[in-house]
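Trying the structure run again after the queue cleared.
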Amino acid sequence: MNNSLPRLIDGMVATLRKEVIPHIEGDFARGQAFGVIYMLNSLKLRASWSNEFLIEQLRALEDAAREFDGLGAEIPAARVPGVRAPDQAPDSAELEAMRNHGDERISALIDWLAAHQDSVSAKVAAHIEATIDRYLHRQLKWELSTSARPMFVEISGVADKSA
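Done. C-alpha cells:
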C-alpha cells in the first residue's frame, strides 16, 4: 500500500472537519460527526498494517506467564497462561486468537484461585493476585494510550467561536 492507514484516516478526518462539519446546522448531527471523527482517530491509533497493538498485549501476557512459571509446584492444577510473544509477527487474526487464549487462561486462573484459596499459601495467592493486577494495569495503560483523546472543546463549538 502506498499510503499508511493513519494517513488515510487523517485525510478522512480533515475532510469531515473542513468540508462536512462547517455545513452542519443541528447540534445532534454535529455531535454525530464529531463521534465519527473520534472513532476514526481511535481506529488510527489501534489499527495499522502491522500487528503492534496485539504484539504488546502478548508481551504483557508473556511477562505475566513468566512470573507464574516459578509457582508451578505450588499451584499444580492452576491453568496459567503459557503465552510467548512471537519474534516474527503473524497475521492479526492469529495474534488476536493468541491474546484471547491468554486472556481466557488469566480468567481461568482467577476462578481457580477463588475456588482453591484455602489450598494455596497466602504468599503464593498474593503473588498470583499481584501478577494479575500488574497484567491488568499494563493492559489498561495500553488501551488508554491507544485511545483517541476526548474532543470536548470541538464538540461544544468553543473552538469555532474563538477562531
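Residues 92-115 form the longest helix (24 residues). Worth checking whether this holds up in the mutant runs.
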